[in-house]
């Protein structure tokens, strides 16, 4: 059932490269999850790792199956669209829920609004 011997050398190299690249990017995202301090810092790296890692693995899948079946295989484009749309939406919903919970509980690690107003002085003029 293994179809790897049927792949031409150029396709096998390209598929191997993109699979390793996708796995490496996802690993970096997972390490970023472990490395960051609080929840608000931790939600960003896995999102990037998921999106970029999945994109590389989907490119490898498109190359592999398009070469094996001698016609373009574009099912992976639907998967890429779905992952690209749902991952950032999930990130925003998780962040808003955590921010709401932390503000209600009075937690100390709640990001304050100084970042949004840092470019404006007390009198309302830009700095």
UniProtKB/TrEMBL annotation:
Coiled coil: none
Keyword match Lipid biosynthesis: no
GO MF entries: sodium:proton antiporter activity
InterPro entries for this protein: PhaG_MnhG_YufB
Transmembrane segments: 12-34, 46-68, 74-95
Keyword Transmembrane: yes
PANTHER family for this protein: ANTIPORTER SUBUNIT MNHG2-RELATED
Protein name per UniProt: Multisubunit potassium/proton antiporter PhaG subunit
